[in-house]
Amino acid sequence: MELEDAKRKFIESWGKLGSEWGINRTMAQVHALLLISPDPLTTEEIMETLSISRGNANMTLRDLIGWGLIEKQHKPGERKEYFFADKDVWNIAKQVAKERRKRELEPVIRVLDELSKVTGDANDPEFSTFNKSVTDINKLAKNVDRTLETMLGAEESWFWGGIFKLFK
Amino acid sequence: MELEDAKRKFIESWGKLGSEWGINRTMAQVHALLLISPDPLTTEEIMETLSISRGNANMTLRDLIGWGLIEKQHKPGERKEYFFADKDVWNIAKQVAKERRKRELEPVIRVLDELSKVTGDANDPEFSTFNKSVTDINKLAKNVDRTLETMLGAEESWFWGGIFKLFK
DNA sequence: TTAAACTTTCAAAAAGTTTTGAAAGTTTAA
DNA sequence: TTAAACTTTCAAAACTTTTTGAAAGTTTAA
C-alpha cells in the first residue's frame, strides 16, 4: 500500500472507531491527521486535507484542545496558528480516560449516590431489586473511579512507572 | 425521593450514559428497566413503560439478547415471551467488554496490522511519523486486547476470582 | 385445517447530530 | 488609526440515526 493510501485509511479508521465510542467522527479524524503529521498544521491545511469547512475545523480544533489532545503553536513571524498533537499514545489514553471520568463518570456517580439514598420496604421486591441494582452499580462505578484516580493522578505512579511500562 | 421517581431517574441516567458511550439510548433504557424489575417483563409492558413502539421494542430486545445482556423466558401455559436481565454487574461489565472487543477492537487491530506493514524511507519524516504513530497504537491495542482476553476468557480466572473480588 | 395470539420486518417519518459558510469579531503590522 | 490576516460564531442545511406502525410472518390450541 502507498503511504498516501495508508494515511487516508488510518484517518478513516480512527474516525470510525471514534464514532463507535461516542466521539464525533470529524474530531477523531482531525486528531488522526495531526497524529501522523511530522509538523504542526494550520486550520487551512486541515480544512483542505479533510475537505471540511472553516467553521467545522475551528470548532473541532477547539474541542480537541479542550480534551487536551492537541495544542496551538505559534511560529515566530507568522500570524497563523499551527496545531500539533501529542504523539505519546500513553498520554493520549491517559488524557481521554481523565476527561471521560470527569465528564461522564462523575455525574453518573452523583445520580447513583442520590438514588442509593431512596428508602423503602425491604420486603417489597420492587424496592429491593431497585436498591440492589443501584447500590451494586454504584459500588462498581466508585471502584472504577478510584482506580482511575490512582492510575491517572500521580504523574509517575506505580502504575505508569511499573506494570504498564512492560507494555510499551 | 419516591421509588417511582427514582426508577424513572435511573432509566433516564442509564440511557444518557449509554448514548455518551455509543450505545443507543433506548437500548440502555430497556436494559435499565429490566435491571430494576424483580420479574421478567413482556414486550407489551416494556412498550408501555417507556412509551416506545412495538417495532422499536422488538429490535431493541433482540439487540440486547445479541449483547448477551438479557434473556427470553417462557412461562408455562403462556404464549407471551418474557424478558429478564442478568443482574450481576460484573457479568454485565464482562459481557459488554467482551462484545466491544469483538466488534470494535478486533477490526481496528486488523487495519493497524495492515498499516504497520507499509514500508518507506526511514529518513522521510512523513513516513517515519506515520509509522511510529501506527505501530505505537498497534502495540497499545494489542496489549489491551491481550489483557482483556486473559481477564474475560476463563470463567473463573485469577482476575475474577482474585483481585476484583475485593471490589464487590 | 383455522384463527387468534403473538413476533418480526422494513420503508417512511421523526429526531438528533454534524456541517456549512457567510458575517461578525479580533489581532497585528505598518 | 487602518486594513489585511486571521479566528470565531451560529442559524440553516445536510446528513445520520432512531423510531414508528402497519403489514407480513409464525406459532399454537382446538
From TrEMBL, chains A, B:
One of its GO terms (molecular function) is DNA binding. Residues 22-79 form the HTH marR-type domain. The keyword Transcription applies. Pfam families: MarR_2 (PF12802). Gene3D superfamilies: Winged helix-like DNA-binding domain superfamily/Winged helix DNA-binding domain. The keyword Protein biosynthesis does not apply. Keywords: DNA-binding, Transcription, Transcription regulation. SUPFAM superfamilies: Winged helix' DNA-binding domain. Belongs to the GbsR family. This is HTH-type transcriptional regulator. It comes from Dyadobacter fermentans. The lineage of its organism: Bacteria, Pseudomonadati, Bacteroidota, Cytophagia, Cytophagales.
